[in-house]
Each structure stands twice: as C-alpha cells, then as structure tokens.
Amino acid sequence: MIERDFLAELRYNASRSSGPGGQNVNKVSTKVELRFHLASSQVLTEDERAVVAEKLAARINAAGELLLVSQSERSQLKNKEKVTEKFYALITRALTPRKKRKATRPSLASREERLETKRRQSEKKANRKPGTSLP
Length: 135
Known about the structure:
single chain, alpha+beta, Double Stranded RNA Binding Domain, 4 helices
C-alpha cells in the first residue's frame, strides 16, 4: 500500500492534545487528526473501496470519512507520521484477503482428551448428588 500515493487525499487537522503534559499541552497543538474521504478516493478501485468500507465501518463517520487520531507524542510532526503509518497499516490489513481455512480432522489424542474431560466433568457433577455416584 505504501507504493500508492494517498498523501494528496489525506487531510490533517491539528488541535490541542488532552491529558498530562503540563504547559506544553495547554499551548501547543500536537494532536493530529487524519481524515480520508473514502467515496471520493481516486487511488482505490471501486471494489477496494467497498471492502474497506465494510471492514472499517466502525471507524468511518457519517460524512464517509475514515478518521484516525494520534496524540501520544509531544510533537505535531511525530504525531502526523504516526497517524499516517496507522492509516497505511489499516488500509493494508483491510485489503489483505483472509486465508481460507483448510478443514482438518481432529487427531486421535485430541478426541481422547475431549472424552476424558467429559468423563471427569460427568463424575464431578454426579458426585454432587447425594446417594448417586458412577462406578
């Protein structure tokens, strides 16, 4: 994904960060918000846009923008770099197809272990009842 140039489509907003940090937090705008309007993207194909919209639906606001925030660093530049890395990682992960699961049969040992666990659980519960127990 890094080979694609999203930078022209990304919008950054800086604002004051919250939390501890004393004077620096109160006077310097270090928090960076990244906004990416998914529907108007020229870099992604129609199919890719649909996949990203489905997988990242929780991060897309009502205006159709993917919204990411970084405020962990003390400098605006570092937060901008961090939020851009986060964006590329999210897009890459969303567009990476999941591997199909190969169906496998349970091994003999796993089947025996399951049955033994069930037997022990059954004995435990049978012993709770007065007057009844398994042989």
